[in-house]
């Protein structure tokens, strides 16, 4: 019987080890697939932004979009991940950041670490998505060099500093204010939207966007079907993005980034409902397919901060409000403030992200937070929203102002008039089409 | 030794709990990824339907497609899921439906239920796919309001009632007739195809589709490459769809929806083989890339009912037959019956779905079913096919007839002639192209 | 206490069985999703190749691409998988191949085998990808029949024989030479590139590609945005491809195909870094979005052989070199050797694949291999590269020569001049466009 017991003990030990490893592998696989789906966001953004350009600028927009992705990856490797780990307390780096330094053991193939690579990859894709949000707003007149610098600033510095503060189990926005932002409505979308806002002030509008009396002229996408399919691919990728916002716990229930238990089922329910609400909300007020698909995005973003807790019909209503309001907000940005936001990024991402944070303050006030953190509150969400806005807007404004001064921000007017593709790209988008480079352009838009 | 035993007992209990939770999470993740892949079906359908339209109707087709998806989600939340749970017995709701009522504990974030959200989401995507099948057939002349009502009827009522009957472990088609439809060949595709059939009778053809002597005129897609890429995206999404047809069992072998053991490997084998067979079958008889990719779909659909059991070369042959016959069937629908099915949905989905059910009756007759259900039989499959046809055709015909009477079915001829985009959409698909809105249209199709 | 022990023993046995099954299912799911993502590679290739064609040949290119995929599936079922299992020793089939014979128990739904179907499916998608690489190089003048035969030869015979030799735990390239090619840089990409090289010699250039003095004329893609989005979809699919290169071990650490332990995290790190390096490298030297996206592919391919071991910044540098050099290599192929490689497949796949093998010889020399296999060495990698080149080039040259002799290789000049779509396809790509079939072609390219 002693022997039986010894055998059994060995079997149990083997099971424990095997189960532990299985759990580790499950986590690794989960974030790997989430990362792959987030790469699809970039296929979507690429089609979306090229479609949203005029035919004469299609490839220049494509190049910018691809470069934003490409430059985020190494910069996020060299300092972005370190920023996330080092700065949850504010502006003073903590020693926790050491694990994210590019020479750390965790930052490479390492048989005793199955987690760092996939976590880094998922965060890198968040960063690339954030940069892509910015990429769309400034098409058709920004300089490539200035754009790349701004994209790196946003994607590998600003939003990830915001994430350290408000999307981290020790971030000061959580520990001091009880801030809650499950799916990065504020941390990704509001920061990105506010950054666009700051840059657009200095960048100025495309030639022809405003008449001499200030009236805004519509500059439509040259290929709306490509825009729509691109946006639907982004929606697919959103399932990877939101999945990556959930923390898989070995042998236990999921939590959000703050450590509060939740289910992946909640994400399934609310993502679909908020998407549907956003589409229908935008349809009800615009009948415009561009705004409908943007409304689907806005719906998800507006509900993203509380996707872990919403009752799905509430997720639908929040999404509806997001979708129903973006066109109006965009009109305010474009017509009142006279900022030429080429794809409505300030409205779709900035406004919906802000909305997303505030509805948590309205409908989830009082929810307990882990440890000593105060519960969710309207004031905490408002503080978080102001921080997100500031961390995007202020550096975006200052950096673009500096780039403007050194003439790295805006292409010369002549290049803009002739089209950036002719000015910058050794290739035509549609070479079998007429000399304007348009897909069947009989009447070039300008 | 007592203490050793007590410790071991505790360890085993912990392992059991952890393994149980791990299994739960595995299931949740599996259906979540399947859902994400099914969203890709909609990116595919969107490109496919816009490409299949003429340039003057591109965006109106896109809007319809997007709205079908958006309206299915909340309606499937409010009553679709309840229908599935409540009606396996026929027309009398059972109390099992209570778990699907919108105010049920299961219908929202719930820490003790990791399953309902992802199952609901997967079924919702089945529903949205079903509605999208219909969406393509009726483009270029259906009214938006009538379309949305019909899409909801099909996607959130009819097919899911069919699923309760024939794709449910207690459905009467299984328990009374031994009906077998692993991958919803009948429940999704035949029902959707029959519904299209019923609606098309009342909707009528597009202006110009038939000459005065009744000869059918070909109205080709304005952008075939977009159609082909869209269809290939649907094929990718099909892997999510068919994966979601398999039931993951904690710590045990997979089963189909009826509880019969199977493997996911079977799905991998047969989906690829049936796709290939369908493409090659259609190529052999048409050399037409539109029908080749439709043939790939048809191949998968024709084999779908028995994907769990086919020997892969048989799956290939069944797929080949599906692909080889759809063009002929479509000619019958369009030229003989004079129903203007814009994308061949009746043939690709209705016919292939019917074929799929019947080959199970031919080649899998006698397979045992679980419990007291009779074995698979030709007659059982035929009864199931008739039920699927009826549940799609009859309500589709009646509802579209009613909509026709109240003038909500068909757009005015003038709108159709000028193009639905000009009539309904505040945006041009290709604004840099000529006034017809075509992608480089020098000779508008009409 | 005896009873307690007996109960515990039973519980432990149940846990062991359940954990074993869970592990089996995890493996099945993992390769199934990898397969689904690899299907996305084909949606990408389809868009890419159609976009890369001139408007007059769009659909013919699409048909070829679709047929390559469709014919690989059954041929890989009937003999491809058998070749892999039977030929690790060289040219003499071993009895291990029996499990891959089409009538083997493993080759179909089988409740005691959850693995064969998904492994076969993943390998089939590798094979289809390999065939698609070839598909792009030869567009716009190859005959359909000859193309299909060559695609089958490459996808279901040559590369998989190479895989048996160099990408198999018992392959002679490993056991005799210590060959290391984690992600098939040589086995898929170099073989495919070398095959293209051999075929292009016999196929000859497109009419108009070379002036009478031998100067190469640029024949640009008719739709560059479609090319770029297609390439980004291929990048997404690459995550499925590379994931499928890792072997999931029940309850243990991952290994590569050779049995060396590794992590999936390494794949996440290095795939992103190498992609980014490739894009930036190509951008630095070309500013051309076609080469930038091709550079992203080239970067992944150049690092693929050692993705399991690279320090990520090294992966970036290797990717950069790949991206930076492909245009020059392609110029050599097209301008010096006067081979009309329509998409740069020899450079992007052949050269980068060769580079990928050799950098392992440079930077990973001395890494131990499992069992009695010699360690990784420069010479071993060089031998492997020569074998990969030969196994692609020689049969490609001979087979295409034979097809040329029997006039199955090249379409008649008249068909090429008028456009393959008009000559072969009963459908126009853009029927609302002008008679040249171009997307808005006012000035047909020829």
Task: Summarize the structure in words.
The structure is a homotrimer of 446-residue chains. In chain A, 68% of the residues are buried. The longest helix of chain A is centred in the N-terminal third of the chain and has 51 residues, at 2-52. The first copy, chain A, has helices spanning 2-52, 58-86, 116-137, 144-166, 172-177, 185-203, 224-243, 264-286, 289-304, 312-336, 345-363, 378-405, 413-418, 420-424. In chain A, 65% of the residues lie in helices and 0% in strands. By secondary structure, chain A is an all-alpha fold. The radius of gyration of chain A is 23 Å and the shape is globular. Chain A starts with a helix and ends in a 22-residue tail after the last helix. At the A-B interface, helix 1, helix 7, helix 8, helix 9 and helix 10 of A face helix 1, helix 2 and helix 3 of B.
Summarize the structure.
The first copy, chain A, has 446 residues and is mainly alpha-helical. Helices cover 65% and strands 0% of the residues of chain A. The first copy, chain A, has helices spanning 2-52, 58-86, 116-137, 144-166, 172-177, 185-203, 224-243, 264-286, 289-304, 312-336, 345-363, 378-405, 413-418, 420-424.
Per-chain topology:
3 copies of one chain form a homotrimer.
Chain A: H1 2-52, H2 58-86, H3 116-137, H4 144-166, H5 172-177, H6 185-203, H7 224-243, H8 264-286, H9 289-304, H10 312-336, H11 345-363, H12 378-405, H13 413-418, H14 420-424
């Amino acid at each position: 019987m002693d022997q039986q017991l010894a055998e059994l003990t060995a079997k149990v030990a083997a099971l424990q080890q095997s189960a532990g490893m299985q759990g580790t592998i499950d986590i690794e696989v989960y974030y790997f697939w989430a990362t792959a789906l987030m790469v699809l966001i970039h296929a979507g953004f690429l089609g979306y932004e090229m479609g949203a350009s005029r035919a004469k600028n299609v490839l220049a927009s494509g190049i910018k979009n691809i470069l934003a992705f490409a430059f985020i990856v190494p910069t996020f490797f060299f300092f972005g991940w370190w920023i996330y780990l080092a700065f949850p307390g504010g502006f003073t780096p903590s020693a926790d950041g050491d694990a994210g330094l590019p020479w750390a053991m965790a930052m490479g193939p390492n048989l005793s670490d199955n987690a760092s690579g996939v976590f880094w990859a998922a965060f890198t894709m968040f960063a690339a998505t954030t940069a892509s949000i910015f990429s769309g707003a400034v098409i058709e007149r920004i300089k490539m060099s200035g754009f790349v610098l701004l994209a790196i600033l946003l994607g590998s510095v600003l939003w990830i500093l915001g994430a350290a503060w408000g999307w981290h189990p020790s971030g000061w926005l959580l520990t001091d204010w009880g801030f809650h932002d499950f799916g990065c409505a504020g941390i990704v979308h509001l920061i990105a939207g506010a950054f666009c806002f700051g840059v657009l002030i200095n960048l100025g509008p495309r030639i022809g966007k405003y008449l001499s009396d200030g009236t805004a002229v519509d500059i439509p996408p040259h290929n709306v079907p490509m825009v729509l399919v691109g946006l639907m691919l982004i929606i697919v990728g959103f399932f990877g993005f939101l999945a990556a916002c959930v923390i898989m716990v070995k042998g236990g229930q999921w939590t959000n980034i703050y450590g509060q238990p939740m289910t992946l089922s909640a994400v399934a329910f609310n993502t679909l409902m908020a998407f549907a609400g956003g589409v229908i909300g935008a349809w009800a007020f615009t009948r415009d397919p561009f705004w409908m698909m943007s409304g689907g995005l806005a719906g998800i973003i507006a509900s993203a901060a509380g996707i872990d807790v919403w009752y799905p019909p509430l997720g639908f209503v929040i999404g509806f409000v997001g979708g129903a309001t973006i066109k109006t907000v965009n009109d305010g940005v474009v017509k009142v403030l006279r900022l030429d936001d080429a794809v409505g990024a300030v409205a779709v991402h900035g406004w919906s992200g802000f909305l997303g944070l505030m509805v948590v303050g309205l409908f989830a006030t009082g929810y307990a937070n882990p440890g000593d953190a105060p519960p969710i509150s309207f004031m905490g969400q408002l503080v978080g929203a102001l921080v997100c806005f500031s961390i995007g807007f202020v550096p975006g404004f200052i950096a673009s102002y500096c780039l403007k001064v050194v003439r790295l921000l805006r292409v010369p007017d002549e290049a803009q008039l002739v089209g950036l593709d002719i000015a910058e790209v050794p290739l035509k988008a549609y070479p079998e089409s007429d000399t304007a480079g348009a897909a069947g352009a009989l009447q070039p838009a300008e």
